[in-house]
Write a structure and sequence with these properties.
Strand order of the largest sheet of chain B: 2-1-5-3-4
Low-confidence stretches of chain B: none
Number of domains of chain B: 2
Mean pLDDT of chain A: 98
CATH class of the largest domain in chain A: Alpha Beta
Oligomer: heterodimer
Distance between the termini of chain B: 64 Å
Mean pLDDT of chain B: 94
Radius of gyration of chain A: 22 Å
Shape of chain A: globular
Number of strands of chain A: 24
Number of domains of chain A: 3
Distance between the termini of chain A: 60 Å
CATH class of the largest domain in chain B: Mainly Alpha
Helix content of chain B: 25-40%
Largest sheet of chain B: 5 strands, mixed
Order of helices and strands of chain B: EEHEEEEEHHHHHHHH
Number of helices of chain B: 9
Structural class of chain B: alpha+beta
Largest sheet of chain A: 5 strands, parallel
Structural class of chain A: alpha/beta
Radius of gyration of chain B: 21 Å
Helix content of chain A: 25-40%
């Protein structure tokens, strides 16, 4: 029988949303025991790679109304407007807290926090700590979390299953990567904060760990995934590696240029108006693809690319505001942006979709909450604005933590024997997978086929026929993944086993993305169909729900919460 | 990319379930001219030998996961180019740490040291979120900024001759972190941390070898932090002799 650990709140994921939730619980109820379960040490979580900044109203020329309107317009009117209002109003206090906890925000001369311009934002409301904002926020949150003895960390524990008793989520089965042992980590509420799933694509800014684990866990437990068709392509990734070059480069005045040296966002009509390089990400990524298709791109070993030109900004500004970009350019593409333009192309960056939650982060499974990129609280709709996601992790991580406390206080611990039995079953499943040499399918091969299907079907522009082919490939892969071949039989730090479990998660998530995309026959935000080029509010102003079914995903709909801003044509 | 050449990687293998002591295994693999060392290790893992274990994630020198010994020197493997080396490469787990498996080292000791310096803002009175932010001038930020850039990759512990002889030594990254908070204008915890720094196995154990700063992939300069922390700990102590410290 597996070991059982008892806590009050179980949080899965050690990035910004998970840590913020843990701190919220610890501050509100020091007597509640929090389990923080993470497959990597918290400072390794992918929040660390965020660069440009976190949005919150900070200046006299700004307002909640303006931040809200920018966000809803950026979302192509698919965001829930009550969620946006709550978000913009809470955002400043959350970033203030980070400041109080030691985040080294960049400063104005008078000692106030500096803000910079960002895509789709009408004024400077993006707080920053040079261009390593995710890194500094994550380390600040992690270090601050260490104050609280009630937060018990399970570092390098991989959660593989939600444990549900009496229709309530009461814990997770988790694999201790170091020992290979599976245990039941129980609580009276569970919060998922495992981040996104960029690794379902071959070319992504995301780190290796971004494999959609929490999405897959919730999905297989019967919770729908929402708006999965909306995948954000960031306009500026390094060709080859996909390493992110922050939008802050353009916020600080950088230009995008085609192979003719033309600022195409200024010279041609791509719908971004005077915003030019500071248009929203979906529109700029489409513009880049169109420039490439028009033959105004450079050819390189990793496909065609355009230029991000910072040479006019000068060394002093780049070193002061964008030192990481300079480091990344030099090391990963051999270009010093002070002297040469940086080669870039659109790259998968962020999932607008995720586990369906309400404004509290509550899912349809009682006791299960989600926050951050794993969740779809519907702040971002069809296209997220840059610098809203770090703040989202704080605002909704904190709220999920507090609401989970309320739920836990009114809930019992459940039937321990029943929960343990589920974890026992999970252990048997994992033991059967470990060292499964009789299998015929290679992990890296299936991963390649999956990412390649996703790139073909779910790119910046989507065709109905390639989308259908993508859906078929994924359904086939879902069958083949049950015959994986694993060579490593060791129980100790078996990363091959983790890769296999991650691949199984990714195929489920990828299938949800592709099927949701095929069903939305319009163009909205990041979802752009070649055959259906217009937004269609008459027929598609709803959230897509995708539910797990052993026979294949089932689709449903959920209303969009309107009420403050009427949907209008999205022009800048 | 074409023009692939072949390279030999000699990698330390250790599975405590099977091996009494670490062994080495050789891999001949095709490599690309623009690969980092990590790309070669990942290639082996994905295509040649699924039983090899190592940590990695961001592949952009910020998550701090992929530190290894490369030809005897601690390196962040996603940051160093394969082309900096010849046709053969020796890859070992980070020195001065117990090995869990293959290239994976034990981090618990490091995490304990990390927490022991109280790496959080300590103030007598906490501000409410609605009160806005502290004022901190760019000059005040500059004083500690560099020491806040540590990615916890632990290369400095592998390079440090004191850690090698005295595993309990608090070590460069943890001292730099404590010092980072001591130098933050928003913090009032200097007295507490200086007391920690005056304890055994902390700043005064440092032998000024400066190896930590030489291997740091983020130019944190932990050696400078240790030296400043020593001075501050002494001044703080001497001041305490002259002016009796206030109660808590």
């Amino acid at each position: 029988m597996v070991d059982v650990a008892r806590h009050d709140i179980v949080i899965v994921g050690g990035g910004a949303a998970g840590l913020r939730a843990a701190i919220a619980v610890a501050e509100a109820s020091p007597d509640l025991s929090v389990a923080l379960v993470s497959k990597v040490y918290p400072m390794r979580c992918h929040t660390v790679s965020a660069e440009g900044g976190a949005a919150a109203v900070a200046r006299a020329d700004d307002s909640f109304e303006m931040h809200g309107y920018d966000t809803v317009k950026g979302s192509d009117f698919l965001a829930d407007q009550d969620v946006i209002r709550y978000f913009v109003e809470e955002a400043p206090a959350e970033l203030n807290r980070l400041e109080h906890w030691g985040c080294p925000w960049s400063r104005n001369d008078d000692g106030s926090v500096a803000t910079r311009a960002f895509g789709g934002m009408t004024t400077k409301r993006t707080w920053f700590a040079t261009d390593k904002v995710g890194f500094h926020m994550l380390h600040t949150l992690f270090q601050h979390s260490m104050r609280f003895d009630s937060v018990v960390r399970y570092d390098e524990y991989f959660a593989t299953k939600l444990l549900v008793d009496g229709g309530v989520c009461r814990g997770v089965a988790a694999l201790d990567i170091r020992t290979g042992e599976v245990s039941a980590i129980l609580g009276r509420a569970v919060i998922l904060a495992t981040g996104g799933a960029g690794r379902i694509f071959p070319f992504t800014t995301n780190g290796m760990i971004k494999t959609g684990d929490g999405m897959a866990l919730a999905y297989r437990a019967g919770v729908p995934l929402k708006d999965m068709e909306f995948v954000q392509y960031h306009p500026t990734g390094l060709p080859g590696t996909g390493i992110l070059i922050t939008e802050a480069t353009r916020g600080e005045g950088g230009y995008l240029k085609n192979s003719e040296g033309e600022r195409f966002l200024v010279e041609r009509d791509y719908g971004v108006g005077t915003k030019a390089e500071l248009g929203p990400r979906d529109m700029i990524s489409r513009a880049i693809i169109q420039e490439i298709e028009a033959g105004r791109a450079f050819k390189g070993p990793y496909g065609e690319y355009l230029h991000l030109d910072l040479t006019h900004l000068g060394e002093e500004l780049i070193d002061k505001r964008l030192p990481f970009v300079r480091e990344l350019g030099r090391i990963y593409i051999g270009v010093d942006p002070v002297y040469e333009p940086i080669p870039i192309r659109p790259v998968v960056h962020y999932m607008m979709g995720g586990v369906d939650t309400d404004i509290d982060g509550a899912t349809t499974l009682p006791g299960l909450y989600a926050a951050g990129e794993v969740a779809c609280v519907s702040l971002n709709g069809a296209n997220r604005l840059g610098s809203n996601s770090l703040t989202e992790c704080l605002v909704f991580g904190a709220r999920a933590g507090l609401v989970a406390v309320e739920f836990a206080n009114g809930s019992s611990a459940g039937n321990e024997d029943a929960l343990r039995a589920q974890a026992d079953e999970e252990r048997a499943h994992i033991d059967a997978l470990r060292g499964r040499v009789k299998g015929g399918e290679k992990i890296s091969q299936l991963r390649r086929e999956m990412t390649s299907a996703m790139e073909d079907g779910c790119g910046v522009y989507r065709h109905q026929d390639t989308l259908r082919a993508c859906v078929q490939s994924l359904a086939q892969l879902r069958g083949r993944v049950s015959d994986l071949r694993l060579e490593d039989a060791s129980r100790v730090f078996n990363t091959e086993l983790i890769s296999a479990l991650e691949l199984i998660n990714m195929i489920d998530v990828a299938e949800a993305v592709a099927i949701s995309a095929l069903d939305r026959k319009e163009s909205r935000g990041a979802h752009t169909c070649r055959e259906y080029t217009a937004r269609d509010d008459q027929n598609y102003l709803y959230h897509t729900l995708c539910s797990f079914d052993p026979a294949g995903p089932r689709l449903g709909k959920k209303d969009v919460t309107l009420g403050t801003w009427e949907p209008e044509e999205r022009k800048y | 990319m074409s023009d692939a050449k072949t390279m030999k990687l000699v990698i330390t293998r250790f599975d405590p379930d099977v091996d009494a002591v670490p062994r080495t295994q050789e891999y001949e693999i095709p490599v690309q001219p623009d690969w980092k060392v990590l790309d070669a290790v990942n290639f082996i893992k994905d295509e040649v030998d699924g039983t090899l274990s190592h940590r990695w994630s961001c592949r952009m020198a910020v998550c701090g996961s992929c530190g290894m010994m490369v030809n005897g020197e601690p390196k962040l493997t996603c940051k160093v180019a394969l082309s900096d080396y010849g046709d053969e490469l020796l890859i070992e787990p980070l020195a001065n740490f117990p090995v869990v498996r293959d290239l994976v080292v034990e981090m618990e000791g490091f995490m304990d040291k990390f927490k022991s310096v109280k790496p959080w803002i300590i103030t007598a009175k906490e501000m409410a979120a609605e009160e806005g932010t502290n004022r901190q001038s760019p000059a005040e930020l500059e004083v500690f900024k560099q020491f806040s850039m540590c990615i916890n990759c632990m290369l400095c512990y592998s390079a440090c001759p004191v850690v090698a002889n005295e595993p309990e030594f608090l070590g460069p990254a943890a001292i730099a972190l404590g010092h980072r908070y001591n130098m933050d204008s928003r913090d009032e915890g200097q007295a507490e941390r200086n007391e920690i720094f005056r304890g055994e196995g902390t700043v005064f154990s440092c032998s000024y070898a400066n190896e930590c700063s030489e291997v740091c992939p983020k130019n944190v300069d932990p050696a400078a932090a240790v030296n400043q922390a020593k001075l501050n700990a002494v001044i703080d102590w001497a001041t305490g002799l002259v002016i009796p410290r206030k109660g808590p």
